[in-house]
Amino acid sequence: MRTHTYITLSLLIAGTLMTSGCNSAPPAAAKEIQTERTKDFAISLMSEKGELAMGQNRFIVVFRSTSNNQPVDAGTVTVGSSMAMPGMAPMTAPIEVEPAGSPGQYAAKGDFAMSGAWKFEVRWDGPAGKGVATFNTNVR
Ligand SMILES: [Cu+2]
């Protein structure tokens, strides 16, 4: 049963990848993926490779003040995702976000089932108020 063997092996590999993806430390050297600006913030998505790719991704969300370019605490941050699918409900990927240990930096991870045009909505609620910024980002 070659097919069955192949599937079992794939599940084992997928399981190993998921386990190794549990470390929540932000990437050591992060490159900018995309930056969007609001009145108060320049909000950047960053990752080790400077891009998002199909499958499991870890990236960081950085909030900087537009007045002095310094990282600034945005309070509670969530990231929503969706991909428009012709003739179907949009595809979504849950994105886990947690504070990355220094002000204005948040570690995020999510698993994208398809490459293509995704929309990310970064929401914040904290000392500087609340808001949302939309990123239209290509997932390779
Ligand atoms: Cu899709």
Describe, in plain words, how this protein is organized in 3D.
The chain is mostly beta strands. The chain has a single domain (25-139), classed as Immunoglobulin-like. It is 14% helix and 48% strand. The chain has one helix and eight strands; from the N terminus they run H-E-E-E-E-E-E-E-E. It has one helix at 2-20, and strands spanning 31-37, 41-47, 55-65, 76-82, 95-99, 105-112, 116-126, 129-139. The longest helix has 19 residues, at 2-20. The termini are far apart. Residues 1-27 have low confidence and may be disordered. Bound molecules: copper (II) ion. Copper (II) ion binds next to loops.
Count of runs of 4 or more consecutive helical residues: 1
CATH architecture: Sandwich
| Intertermini distance | 34 Å
Rg over alpha carbons: 17 Å
Class based on secondary structure composition and strand pairing = mainly beta
Provide the CATH topology: Immunoglobulin-like
How would you describe the oligomerization state of the chains in this entry?
Answer: single chain
The helix/strand order is HEEEEEEEE
The ligands found in this model are: copper (II) ion
CATH class: Mainly Beta
Beta-strand segment tally = 8
Mean pLDDT: 85
**Low-pLDDT segments:** 1-27
Spatial sequence of strands, sheet with the most strands = 1-2-3-6-5
Q: Could you say how many structural domains there are in total?
A: 1
Shape call: globular
Please identify which CATH superfamily we are dealing with. Domain of unknown function DUF4426
Strand content: over 45%
Strand count, sense and barrel status of the largest sheet are:
5 strands, antiparallel
